[in-house]
UniProtKB/TrEMBL annotation, chain B:
Location relative to the cell: Cell membrane; Cellular thylakoid membrane; Membrane
NCBIfam families: ATP_synt_6_or_A
Protein name as annotated: ATP synthase subunit a
Chain's role: Key component of the proton channel; it plays a direct role in the translocation of protons across the membrane.
GO MF entries: proton-transporting ATP synthase activity, rotational mechanism
Nucleotide-binding as UniProt keyword: no
Membership in a protein family: Belongs to the ATPase A chain family.
Pfam families for this protein: ATP-synt_A
PROSITE patterns: ATPASE_A (PS00449)
Keyword Transport: yes
Segments passing through the bilayer: 33-55, 93-113, 133-152, 189-211, 217-238
């Protein structure tokens, strides 16, 4: 339909080719517009992209710095942990040795105590025995003396005494 | 188009000419394909592929050059998608929205910036792929498919409940909406790009040099906006389909 009133310059000429008609291809204006877009568009786009790149770079740097910081903090914390662990180990070792020492000491002390108490007990027993023996001896002597005295009193009457005296005189006079 | 009737007179002058409604037809079975659209589409696809491969071939920790540029584009698309679909569901839709945006944007700008007419075809002429209604309808229908898929996948058959909300009286309008969405999407894009090209063409026809330049720059601006609008609306539709209404959100 449009063909009726719109003139078709190359209608029917056929084949693919190059059309170098400056007006028909609008080449002049297109070149200018394209140049305009390239010059100004490039400027704007370059600005935007440079800014974007800078932002990304900053973000990455920031993140990397923070990562580094975190890594060093982790390193320090690890070192502290190792130190604390070593300390704990040392304390435990010390505790173990001191416990062993205390144990041995206490054992020795207790053994000595027991020994001493035994000795003491033994000594105690000996003195008690001696004392008892002495007491018994004293009582036996006392009883024997009492019995002898009593017997002596019963046996020693006047006649016996006279007899004894007579015999003693006889003994002397017979001479 | 009747507006252009007045240009009849110019036909007799040896100035430029507008070539509308002519296509380089390719035949595929019973189908007639608009060859020039395919050629420029492949060009655009190739451009995007080369850019993505170049950007990802040697990925640096601190992006530079094309990697930086493409990352910037990706960030832009991701933010757009996130704003429309929401933090929770946006991630799987970034590739789709991004493809739409980048393809439309590069198509539009290639049409507005590159001297396609240097290459002479037997019939029709090379231009932005988006100035052909077939391209924009295809993109719009893909968007429709995408939001239906998103809705059914997220809410199952409960998605159909949105047709009777807020009141069943609106059922016809809600159904109509599913037809108007792709229609408006495709016609908006197609119309804008074709109109741009026609305006520039007509101006070139009248005054060949310098004068069309402001309109061409404006065309660049609207082209970019149209790409943004298409991608944003696609994301909005998908977001709507996923989100549903407030009270439904609580049930799930």
């Amino acid at each position: 339909m449009m063909g009726n009133f719109l003139f078709l310059a190359n209608a029917g000429t056929g084949g693919v080719g190059l059309n170098l008609d400056l007006i028909e291809t609008n080449l002049f204006n297109l070149t200018l517009v394209l140049g305009f877009v390239i010059v100004f568009g490039r400027k704007v786009l370059t600005n935007i992209l440079t800014e974007r790149r800078a932002t990304i770079e900053n973000a990455i740097q920031d993140t990397e710095a923070r990562q580094k910081q975190a890594a060093s903090a982790l390193e320090i914390a690890k070192k502290n942990l190792a130190q604390a662990q070593a300390e704990a180990e040392q304390i435990r070792q010390t505790a173990i040795t001191s416990a062993a020492n205390a144990k041995a000491e206490i054992a020795a002390k207790t053994a000595a105590d027991i020994e001493r108490m035994k000795e003491l007990a033994a000594a105690d027993t000996n003195t008690e025995q001696d004392k008892a023996i002495a007491e018994l001896r004293a009582r036996v002597t006392k009883l024997a003396m009492e019995r002898a005295e009593a017997q002596l009193k019963n046996l020693l009457n006047d006649s016996a005494q006279a007899q004894l005296v007579d015999r003693s005189i006889a003994l002397v006079g017979g001479n | 188009m009747h507006m252009l009737d007045g240009l009849n007179i110019i036909n007799s002058l040896p100035l430029a000419a507008l070539d509308v409604g002519h296509h380089l037809y390719w035949r595929l079975g019973n189908l007639q394909l608009h060859g020039q659209v395919f050629l420029t589409s492949w060009f655009v696809i190739g451009l995007l592929l080369i850019a993505s491969i170049a950007a990802t071939r040697n990925v640096q920790r601190i992006p530079r050059g094309i990697q930086n540029l493409m990352e910037y584009a990706l960030e832009f698309i991701r933010d757009l998608t996130k704003n429309q679909i929401g933090e929770k569901e946006y991630r799987p839709w970034v590739p789709f929205i991004g493809t739409l945006f980048l393809f439309i944007f590069v198509s539009n700008w290639s049409g507005a910036l590159l001297p396609w007419k240097l290459i002479h075809l037997p019939s029709g002429e090379l231009a932005a792929p988006t100035n052909d209604i077939n391209t924009t309808v295809a993109l719009a229908l893909l968007t429709s498919l995408a939001y239906f898929y998103a809705g059914f996948r997220k809410r199952g058959l409960g998605y159909l409940a949105k047709y009777v909300q807020p009141t069943p009286i609106l059922l016809p309008i809600n159904i109509l909406e599913d037809f108007t969405k792709p229609l408006s999407l495709s016609f908006r894009l197609f119309g804008n790009i074709l109109a741009d090209e026609l305006v520039v063409g007509v101006l070139v026809l009248l005054v060949p040099f310098i004068i069309p330049m402001p309109v061409m720059l404006l065309g660049l601006f609207t082209s970019a906006i149209q790409a943004l609008v298409f991608a944003t609306l696609a994301a909005v539709y998908i977001g709507e389909a996923i989100e549903g209404h407030g009270e439904h959100e609580e049930e799930h």
